[in-house]
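For the sake of clarity, the format in which proteins appear in this thesis is described at this point. The fold follows as a row of integers, each naming the local backbone shape at the matching residue. One such record is shown here in full, so that the layout can be seen directly:
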Amino acid sequence: NQFLGEAILMSSISLALALSIIQLSLPFFNALTEKQIVIPYNDVRFLLMLGVMTISSGVLAGIYPSLVLSSFNPIMALKSQVQLLSDAHWLRKGLVIFQLVVTTVLIISTIIIYQQISFINHKNLGIDTDNVIYFPVHQNFLDHHEAFENEILQSNHIQSFTLSSSNPLMVFSSSSDPTWEGKTPDNPSSFYFIECSYDILETMGIKLIKGRTFDRSMKSDTASFMVNKEAAKLMGVDDPIGLTMSFWDKKGKIIGLVENFHHQSMHSKIGPMILRFWPENTSYGFVKFQGQELQKVIKGLEATYNIFEPDYPFEYYFLNKDLEEIYNSEKLVSKFSNLFSFLAIMISCLGLYGLIAYTTEKKSKEIGIRKVLGASVKAILLLLSSTFMKWVLVANLIAWPIAWYVTNAWLENFAYRIEISWWVFAATGLITFILTLSTLSFKTIRSALANPVESLKYE
């Protein structure tokens, strides 16, 4: 009863400390996840759950020592000649190896998640999202968009303006209607499309490979198209310039071939894309600006917008902010993996230290005898360390395939991803060896330096 009571008391103290830490951490957690989570102290079910969890944890932690230690022979216990069950030794080792496996898996996952996020951040999207502001447009604005464009381009801070039916980072509109010269009946291909106005390439930073963009001086361009490389590949041509294309009862020539750009997140492959001139059917106005006077640019755009569209408020967004939001969940996963890896390392080191303390205590007389017989501190350190290093090796061999499977499954969600490198596993193995050796050194060096008389004087 005493052992169980102490264990439940420990669990209760841990609960109080845990709730305090959670309460202090909630503002940071809510900012990280953009949620508003609170601890429901007034919820009876929540309080009952805490009570059950606390008692269960205490019972689970205390049941084994309470049954085993209370059964010891008092005389043998006082002589320190108690022998624990052999199964307990394997249980302790198993738990420590399990902790090391979890730590290794989390460290590998953290490294690979960081690599993928870094890959996403540095990959060329085919679109320049910097210094691009956009806003919804309505019919009255569309009727006067040319006058609006002429007005804002008088500012030295505005580089270009265009209209688009979609945010170029989130294009989901598709159609299997397009036909072209040479299309075969067995090619029921589907194309993504953007309806736009002039200067679409200049504003979005999309690269032109061949041909030209829509030209105000060419009246025929109002029925023209531009396609990306993926579209040309699907059409089965290397150079689509000059081909006649029909799309939604509009027939014209393909005048430009543009570089592929990521019109969705990297979870999806770049699809065939058609850029069609049709400003009357657009939904957003995009402005490319320069300079550092952002507020001046916004105020100027809003004032001009209100002249041509007084019935709707000016609501604006930034293209680079949209890009950040697309990968918000991945960045959140990265932050949490860093946090959990740190916690796992701490817990593993504590578990290791506990087992090392127990082992060195059990071997204190052996260490004393070896020192009397001339063993050096280095030799004793190697003796105590060798067993634990074997466990670290076993933990890594178990963790590596698990980590590969878990991270590879996560990476399969991306159409564009990194390849898992062997050095990640080797580096993680080295990290776990260093962590274990550091934990070992803290306790074993002190034991190896201890005066052997202290451990042998009662013999």
